[in-house]
Amino acid sequence: MVKDKKDFLFMAAVYAFIVAIFVITFYPFWNIFIISLNSAEDTLRGHLYLWPREFSLKSYEQILGDSEIWTAIRVTLLRTVIGTPLAVLTISMLAFALSKKELVANRFWTLYFVFTMYFGGGLIPYYMVLKSYHLIDNFMVFIVPGLMNVFYMIIVRTFMQGLPQELDESAKMDGANYLQIFFRIILPLTTPVLATIGLFTAISHWNSWFDSYVFTYNPDLKTLQAVLVKILNQYQTGSMVGDAQAMANSAKRMQVSPDTIRMAATMVATLPIIMVYPFLQKYFVKGMTLGAVKS
Question: Transmembrane region positions (predicted)?
Answer without folding.
Answer: 7-30, 77-97, 109-127, 139-160, 181-203, 261-280
